[in-house]
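Why do we care about 3D structure at all? Because function follows from shape, and shape follows, mostly, from sequence. That is the central idea of this module. The next example makes it concrete: a single protein chain, its amino acid sequence, and then its structure expressed as tokens.
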Amino acid sequence: MREKGTLVFFCGKMGAGKSTQARLIATEQNAVLLSEDEWLSSLYPQQIASFADYLKYSAQLKPLVKAHVQHILATGTNVVMDFPANTRAQRQWFLALAAEIKAQHRLVYLDVSDAQCLQQIGQRRTEQPERAAFDTEAMFKQVTHYFEAPSSSEGLNIL
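And the structure:
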């Protein structure tokens, strides 16, 4: 029986560096990198103008992504998912995705201060002007309101 790949996913506030870490880990592990931002912008161009829009389209994406990732993991290939695991419910989705096919998982938790996140968001607005409308302090505060730090009681392999 072929060994399954490992699923790597991330928890951290907006601007914590999840995407940067995802790219680094995917390169280091020669893993498949899937970015929610890339999928959403390709499938729903100019349709995400609010947090409510993001939640709607993200939910529509998940069934397709889940099956796709499970097929990749089943081949023995590692998958790095640059999708948020910032709430208990989101992390349980990732955990179930891996558990259903008996694949290993790792959660990378980036515990970064609000001040550092806001600084990095400001830098990202400059480097990626197309994100300026969404990458704001107001959006950071709105999204951070829902953030839940991971707990050992969730059954996760936390790094």
